[in-house]
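Entry 14. Two folds queued back to back today. First construct below, sequence then structure tokens.
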Amino acid sequence: MIVRIVKMTFREEVVPDFLENFHRHKSQIRAFPGCERLLLLNDVNDPRVYFTYSWWQGEENLEEYRHSDLFKGVWAFTKTLFDAKPEAWSTQEIEALR
């Protein structure tokens, strides 16, 4: 299982545009083959900073998504809204305490 974490900082005036676009596409992203879960988080100290966490069955599923028309369209729009360079990590779970 791969957890993809993406940190995005937006210009303040375009945050509503990002959220609208995310809500328009979140079901399609979640339904993409291999996507197990999708989470959107907002920084409690900076309302311009958002994180997406997406759980993928494997790296190949994540790569298929990253090369899909869905991703290309969503990302093409999203990257026009940034106020800082986005950061992304592909991680794997080592241990979970519940």
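Second construct, same run, same settings:
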Amino acid sequence: MLRHASIAAAAAAAKLAEDTIVLDVGEILGITDLFVITSGRNVRQVRTVVEEVEKALKERTGLKPIGVEGLTDASWVLLDYGPFVVHVFLEETREHYALDRLWADAPRLDWESAVPTTVP
């Protein structure tokens, strides 16, 4: 799953999302294995990041989200892929909910070295 989460993180980074991290929450949470957390500076960028993540995962892995929540106001969009969940926040919303601190015990994974260089 790190491969898929890394594709999502790289897609977010390609659209200039900020502070993109991947957390291994499987041992702590139990309902999913990985969180991808990233932020956009405004609603338009959040939506662009969400679109790019969906596009990259569909093209490179065939995956589509099981569910998408929060797209209407786009201050916190959640893309549920089952084994991993992508959280795309507005900067101020991310600061408010502080998932990074909430899940501080979860190991941070090196997503950049796990991004595949070729399309399967």
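Quick look at the second one. Helices lie at 2-14, 26-29, 43-61, 91-97, 99-102. The longest strand covers residues 18-24.
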